[in-house]
Amino acid sequence: MSEASKTRRLRELLHEPQTTFLLEAHSGLSARIAQEAGFPAIWASGLAISAALGVRDANEASWSQVLDLVEFLCDATQVPVLLDADTGSGNFNNVRRLVRKAERAGVAGLCIEDKLFPKKNSLCGGGVESLADVDEFSGRIRAAKDSQTDPDTVIVARTEAMVVGGSVDEALHRARAYREAGADAVLAHSMSESPHEVLEFMKRWKDTCPVVLVPTTYASTPTRTLEEAGASMIIWANHLVRASIVAMQRTAATILAESSVAGVEPRIASLAEVFRLQDMAELERAEARYLPERNAEADEASTDEES
Length: 307
Ligand code: SPV
Ligand code: MG
What we know:
Number of helices: 13
Low-confidence stretches: none
Distance between the termini: 51 Å
Strand content: 5-15%
Order of helices and strands: HEHEHHEHEHEHEHEHEHHHH
Helix content: 40-55%
Strand order of the largest sheet: 1-2-3-4-5-6-7-8
Mean pLDDT: 95
Bound molecules: sulfopyruvate, magnesium ion
Number of strands: 8
Shape: globular
Structural class: alpha/beta
């Protein structure tokens, strides 16, 4: 799918009557796995990407390092990628550059949150962070919309009001301002274990514009409840990286304990599966098409002549 059709597809998904589910990816490989599982779009999660890079989700990886990696996700898949663009890495001016570069990397949408650079992951505790001023953040959203070169690139404005202990009123006030600034959708984030505040948000928001939810802390809420509340998109934000952590920890411990890889073989992907996911078959077809045909007898003869 071309970059233009990916942006169009993400926009369509946002406006479809049914809820769309996005799964986190943090590498080309995990993006391909999410796509193969059937997810129609991918969340390029800041938490998962930084964890995979071995750094904290606190803008320790620079935005350009993140984009270099996200380009692999986009290249590896045909479904649209929604980039977790954190705060936009600064003020309106940084957002403008980020949006243009992200489009070139192949992302179909950017989600920008109303915190200040550098931010920390919303769920990690460790002190409440301050929110951006509403007007300043609205300027970031306006700048994002003015900078996109593809009219279909989706800009999601994420409010962290409820994450930092603010009220649903505050979240609604902010979301309305961001919508007026041009956001295509809003993400109402919450770190409550109960869906209560996001459900109240949804009820009062009505259908002003599409709403994206991230049910990580309220994961036990039936998905149906969030669908019925009108969520346009639901992001499962960190589950592939978490799955891979457990698999790698178990595998590493077993190999060390047994001083052998024999015991883990049946429980890990075969090399054939690795090659399939990398699409080695396509490279073989391309070699047959583009490399000069190799003639074994002629090769042998030339080796004889040389010796
Ligand atoms: C992420 O996946 O990086 C997110 C969602 O921003 S959360 O971790 O809930 O903040
Ligand atoms: Mg994030």
